[in-house]
Amino acid sequence: MDQITSNDECHKKRNRRMKKVFVTGITGLLGNNTVIKLVENGYFVIALVRKKGVCFFKENESLTLVEGDLFSDLSKHLKDVDYVIHIAAETRQNLLLYRDYQRINCEATIHLFCESVKANVQKFLFISSANTLGFGSFEELGNEKNDQKYPFTHSFYAKSKSEAENFLLHQKKNTKVIILNPAFMIGNHDYKPSSGKIIFWVWKKNMVFYPKGGKNFVNVEDVATGIVCALKKGKKGEKYLLANENLTYRDFFTKVNTVTDQQPIMIPIPDFILQFLGFLGDFLRFCRIKTNLSSVNMKALLINNYYSNQKSIDELGIQYQPIEKAIEDAVNFFKNR
């Protein structure tokens, strides 16, 4: 009995020494990787989940799970917390109304921030999207100073994230706000899968159809590392693009083919087909039918959606891994599931 009591006391003392971080969205691709990085770096994590039973993590001396939602009274769980990392978001592309995104991505963020301020949390890290910032071309990459551009000014998801950013950055509170803007993430622990679905667009296919545009791809592990770095080095009121390789879809799919040792026929999708699918999606949405198709989403496939990661390298000290490593991690994870 004395030994058990002694061990409990040791754990309590250890937890008091560890920096405490409250994290949302841990069942998603980024949240999962972030919890792993936090624990590896000696943080004590308090994670918000809907139900403990469906969470991939099990509670231990470095992790406590809290059941609730983003609008719950979280005051008792934020007590003595040093940092809040807000990852949870509505990311589905088939919802019909801006309100569907605004409630989760903006209003829930405001609620959590206000709760954090009351609890005297030191830093509030909001995980947003690269698409709240203006993209660029190969010759002139988008950066943290660029204003959001079409088509993302018309994306309900990107607009709701931008609205949340604007609220947070105008707060004159003691709680420091840091905005992190990840690009398109690929990598390990993609249970749903989420963005890893793009791998299945190519993997084990005899023919691969690709749009003419491109985007910035980044290893989700590097984004999780960037979040941990921002806890220590992130500056109040700053945005940081967590991005890596700017690739056309053809080039990205070619990398997937190399990693998976396959040689499918590569066929470009004519612009007019994507434009037609966009108009079809707009019509279905007008008829209140949920679909991922829309003019906005199709236009995003036709542009070069490229960004610079220089600020995160210079100020956060991130060393990005080749995107082939992210593809390999994702493929191996899907093989072993």
From TrEMBL:
Transmembrane segments: none annotated. It comes from the Bacteria. Residues 21-242 form the NAD-dependent epimerase/dehydratase domain. It holds the Pfam family Epimerase. SUPFAM superfamilies: NAD(P)-binding Rossmann-fold domains. This is NAD-dependent epimerase/dehydratase family protein.
